[in-house]
Amino acid sequence: xxxxxxxxxxxxxxxxxxxxxxxxxxxxxxxxxxxxxxxxxxxxxxxxxxxxxxxxxxxxxxxxxxxxxxxxxxxxxxxxxxxxxxxxxxx
Length: 91
What we know:
Helices cover about 75% and strands about 0% of the residues. The chain is mainly α and about 90 residues long. The chain has one domain (about 5-85).
């Protein structure tokens, strides 16, 4: 079974998230003007892939640090998404 389709979909998602997060004129609460939860998700995806590569190469300490970065990115994404939903008008 090929993972090529999965990799293509992941690439499309990353590209879309990157375009949304760094779109010209995009306003955000972050100082860089990027959508923090979207950037955090992008970082989580990238570090997961790097962690997998490091594990396959036997780079255990590097894989550990990348796993920690992934976990932190996922937490930041959840916190950012929660804060955004609290700021949204209810109704």
